[in-house]
Amino acid sequence: MIEEGKKLLGHPYVWGSQRYHWGNGKLNTAFKAGEYDCSALMQYIFFKGAGVCLDLNTRTQVLQGAQVERQNLKRGDLMFFTNASRYHNTGVERVGHVAIYLGDNYILHTASDHAVIEQISATRWSYYIVAKDVL
Fold first, then answer.
1. From the CB of residue 104, how many other CB atoms can be counted at a distance below 10 Å?
2. 89 Cβ neighbours under 8 A, 6+ residues apart
């Protein structure tokens, strides 16, 4: 998954972009290669890299897999975060972002403009909700 994600570094962030598949592996004919929001990027790289079918958005992807405690994070785990506009929401409505953990406090994800690898900032850690192992 990580190697698939690295191939997409620099591709533009497109909010609400088309998904590669419908959550079940059935390909979406409207998918546009190179356009990803955070959950579309994770869905694409997990399917292409490991054959794992992730659901359509962050609020359904967070329900998949086994929970991983923060101190046990490992390379390839999905990390879910809230954001300023969802911070006071509850349940899955609080989830607003997803990334793949690379290890050593780094993630691969779509930032506000494109797909990047970056160190997890203190601010992003303050928005952290949960990590999941979906493999």
1. 8
2. 82
List alpha helices for 28-132, DSSP H.
38-50, 58-61, 122-126
How many other CB atoms sit within 10 Å of the CB of residue 97?
A: 22
Evaluate the CA torsion angle 122, 124, 130, 133 in order and state its sign: negative
Q: Which residues contact 110 (CB under 8 A, 6 or more apart)?
A: 13, 36, 37, 38, 41, 116
Compute the chain's Rg from CA coordinates.
Answer: 14
Tens digits of per-residue pLDDT, 81-117?
A: 999 999 999 999 999 999 999 999 999 999 889 999 9
Please identify which residue in the block is written with the tokens 């897999």: 65
